[in-house]
Amino acid sequence: MIEFPSAFAKPHPALTDGFCRRISYLRVSVTDRCDFRCTYCMSERVRFLPRKDVLSLEELDRLCSVFVALGVTKLRVTGGEPLVRRDILQFFRAMSRHLDSGALGELTLTTNGSQLARHAAELAACGVRRVNVSLDTLDAARFEGLTRRGRLAPVLEGIGAARAAGLRVKINTVALKGFTEDELFPLVEWCGAEGHDLTFIEIMPFGEDGPEDRIERFWPLTDLRARLARRFTLQPLAQSTGGPARYVRLAETGQKIGLITPLSHNFCEGCNRVRLTCTGELYPCLGQDGTSDLRAVLRATADDRALEQAIRAAIARKPRGHDFDHSCGTADGAMRRGMNHTGG
Ligand code: SAM
């Protein structure tokens, strides 16, 4: 007899949107809280959500398990800072049963690394194989300035612990004008020496900055790439993950460098991902305003079929592509709500 890897008795037709894109990747924010206040991300005086608004670990388990039953094979846990949520390893342990059953292909997380040293071994034991660590500088004083309250040493220790536990590490660096120019080659060289992958992300228009600040801090990846090309031979790679990253290889070192331009349209036709905030709002598209309140359904009924219907209805409305307003329009508001307050 065939056993189906879910709470459901029968297999379910794949989650497909109105443009025949199959949804297989869920990013789930497990908290709005963070121990850093990175200047490009969070206000220094951010007000966090009342606890009752945030999904409990059991609710997150139930919701994510329905997504897995519907064909999500990649789950990325994010925040806020996911590792500051109390008992978060309980959630990773719960999700590892879907890895064991084969329903989930990958369980991973994006972290600032501050708590990684104490969790790395258990994350590995839960079946996590890769982590993304956000790191914008290797200079301790600049790190403190940019994160407003973070310290570099525990982050480097966390990265070391992750590697020691057998996890692959990818460093994510936001490209900031007047800052990353000085960090570019030290970061590339350090990642090369340590064996970490490295991806640069173009800054997205949210946070407290006004339009002038945003323009001031925006360092286009075309410029970053041109600067890299002065020192290295760049070989474009065809690899695509269905997301906004493009890759180049540095011929001299063999390193693969990712370049993420989140505001571009160039990946929408192959988009396979949706995003869930810690309050249970589903964002079918990063750059569009439409969201669906899955928490209301989750708390109204114990019947997972109602959740399945709500998820399918939300995904059917997934727009064809991004609609960012780079200055301060609607999509900006969507991202404020989606990422800064309830998690990216
Ligand atoms: N706390 C975790 C971390 O630091 O990785 C997860 C949440 S954080 C919001 C996820 C990623 O978003 C980080 O890599 C961070 O650098 C990036 N990010 C935050 N604000 C951004 C912005 N304005 N533009 C581009 N990326 C941003």
Summary tags:
344 residues, alpha/beta, 12-stranded mixed beta sheet, 11 helices, 36% helix, disordered N terminus, binds S-adenosylmethionine
Describe the structure.
The chain has 344 residues and is an alpha/beta fold. Helices cover 36% and strands 17% of the residues. It is built from eleven helices and twelve strands. It has a twelve-stranded mixed beta sheet with strand order 7-8-9-6-5-4-3-2-1-10-11-12. Helix 1 runs parallel beside helix 2 (88-101) and helix 3 (116-125) runs parallel beside helix 5. The longest helix is centred in the middle third of the chain and has 15 residues, at 180-194. S-adenosylmethionine is lined by residues 34, 40-41, 78-79, 81, 110-112, 134, 172, 174, 201, 203-204, 206-207, 339, 344.
Average pLDDT works out at: 88
The molecules bound to the chains, other than polymers, are: S-adenosylmethionine
Order of helices and strands: EHEHEHEHHEHEHHEEEEEEHHH
The general outline is globular
| Main beta sheet | 12 strands, mixed
| Cα end-to-end separation | 41 Å
**Widest beta sheet: strand line-up:** 7-8-9-6-5-4-3-2-1-10-11-12
Alpha-carbon Rg, integer: 20 Å
Residue share in helix: 25-40%
The number of distinct β-strands equals 12
Structural class: alpha/beta
- How much strand content do the residues show? 15-25%
Unreliable residue runs: 1-9, 325-341
Number of helical segments? 11
